């Protein structure tokens, strides 16, 4: 079964929550998000005009919003620490835009 489309964003950790959860403030730029495992030409051909407009509208609504994120399994496995103020890369499912998975911590 193929994996579903995920949206990638970057954000800044604003709060540490219990159970290895984090509140992350999203940073949304025009070219920042992308669909995982698909090129932009494939995504455009698979989505109808209304679907692509819907995704663009939902992304514009997310600008400067906060989501609850959890760490990915490999980050837990390698014990990568995340603290307040870290810039991270997130993956979000288009069906639930309130939860995200932290997949990378930038070395800034």
TrEMBL record:
It is found in: Cytoplasm. InterPro entries: NA-bd_OB-fold (IPR012340), RNA-binding_domain_S1_IF1 (IPR006196), TIF_IF1 (IPR004368). Keywords: Cytoplasm, Initiation factor, Protein biosynthesis, RNA-binding, rRNA-binding. Its main location: cytoplasm. It comes from the Bacteria. Residues 59-107 form the S1-like domain. GO terms for cellular component: cytosol. The keyword Chaperone does not apply. PANTHER family: TRANSLATION INITIATION FACTOR IF-1, CHLOROPLASTIC. One of the essential components for the initiation of protein synthesis. Stabilizes the binding of IF-2 and IF-3 on the 30S subunit to which N-formylmethionyl-tRNA(fMet) subsequently binds. Helps modulate mRNA selection, yielding the 30S pre-initiation complex (PIC). Upon addition of the 50S ribosomal subunit IF-1, IF-2 and IF-3 are released leaving the mature 70S translation initiation complex. Component of the 30S ribosomal translation pre-initiation complex which assembles on the 30S ribosome in the order IF-2 and IF-3, IF-1 and N-formylmethionyl-tRNA(fMet); mRNA recruitment can occur at any time during PIC assembly. Belongs to the IF-1 family. This is Translation initiation factor IF-1. It comes from Candidatus Liberibacter africanus PTSAPSY.
């Amino acid at each position: 079964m193929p994996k579903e489309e995920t949206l990638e964003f970057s954000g800044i950790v604003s709060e540490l929550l219990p159970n290895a959860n984090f509140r992350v403030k999203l940073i949304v730029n025009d070219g920042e998000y992308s669909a995982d495992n698909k090129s932009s030409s494939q995504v455009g051909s698979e989505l109808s005009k209304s679907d692509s407009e819907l995704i663009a509208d939902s992304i514009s609504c997310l600008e400067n919003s906060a989501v609850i994120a959890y760490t990915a399994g490999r980050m837990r496995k390698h014990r990568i620490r995340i603290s307040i103020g870290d810039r991270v890369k997130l993956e979000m499912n288009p069906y639930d835009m309130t939860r995200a998975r932290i997949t990378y911590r930038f070395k800034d």
